[in-house]
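Appendix B. One record, verbatim.
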Amino acid sequence: MEQILQRGYAVADGVRIRTMVAQGQKWQLYLTNRNHWVLVATAELVQFWTQTYGMEKGIFQKLDAADYFLLSSPDGYLISAMEAGPYPQDSRQIEAFSLTFARAREQYPQESFQNAIYLEAYSLLLPTGEKTEICSPDVVYGRWLTGGVQVSICQLERVSRLLSWLPRSILQEYVRKAGFDVPGGKPGVALAETDRRGPGPLTLKTAESGEFRLLGRPELERFFRDNILDLIQNAEAYQRMGISFPGATVLHGPPGCGKTYAVEQLAQYLGWPRFDIDSQSIGSPYIHETSRKISEIFQQAIEAAPSVLVIDEMEAFLSERGNALTSGLHHAEEVAEFLRRIPEAVSKGVLIFAMTNMVDMIDPAILRRGRFDHVIEVKMPSADEISALLRAKFQELPVDETVQVPVIAGVLDGHPMSDVVFVLREAGRLAVKSGLAAMSQACFLQAMEQLPDGQKRNKIGF
């Protein structure tokens, strides 16, 4: 295979090819003058990765007048050929690879990944299909960690000596994350159970008693019970089935549909510390600063685990790469930081929710299973759901016999839950102002007259 990109080829403004560092039958790997890694692959190989290994479309860009596609990695992130490098230079790269390696083995247990290409920014291991002598996964992993030395990770003493710059305790942790047993340590299976559980038992730490309730949202309540609370409350039974912790969840829907409220209620019921990522808390004009802040919040949530981490307005950070590069508002490095940290945090006992009003803008790599296991649409509450909420509230609040729940719910049908709360509060205020002992239908009708129309309605999450 002849060299496809020549020295000086412009990958982007100021970024040019310096040298080719590795190649296979259908791919070539280059280093640029900015120390970026550039992968060129045949159309056939790119199609193979997309159809067989779940790589999202659009990562590679087609080269002009050639049957080849190009991928340029964000600054600081590896593209590595397992057989030829480049190999890890720091502990962060080893940790990121270990998590990717474990997940890849879980998804494709028949693969050794000996001839794979590792895309750190996308947490992907992509086999090239080239035929060579097959090595076992422990040798593939050990070889990559040690810079090409043919050594099994089971020979931990030897690997530790080869990686003398990495503390042995840290190496053992990464080996467990990669899914291998550590001699003298706790066994690792895919992602070690000890890593998944995080510090301390995953039990409810709350004064709340009884079942979890999400008034007016029965379907979302059922989802939380079945896919989150049941896994936490019956952890041992699920662990026997290889399920250790609830996966991350995306809640998407229009403003005011109840996404924020639902997560707040669940976090309060669990009694776990909550951490938030939003544009105000981590936004920065400096790309590396934003990524650093993202990493810091993830680390805080991991150290406090079991905990809840909420990514609000996720489209601000995780929009599709094509949109990000076009608009200049978002950066591939930020996306890569989330790609790397989400599975790690889940494995340590962090319950992750991301919320968005624009799910179509989200990078497909983020929505792929293994990062967010569930993508749930939260619609505006129906009249039946509003009726259920009102009846529950009326058991706690004074109302008289004139109040007609179906009429009130019919007027509020299609309104955000924040409007329902406003009407309840305003009807109570009007009752007190009128000297009434209980809220009447007239109070509710007067309160609903103050609601703005659909065009002017405040977009406040509930």
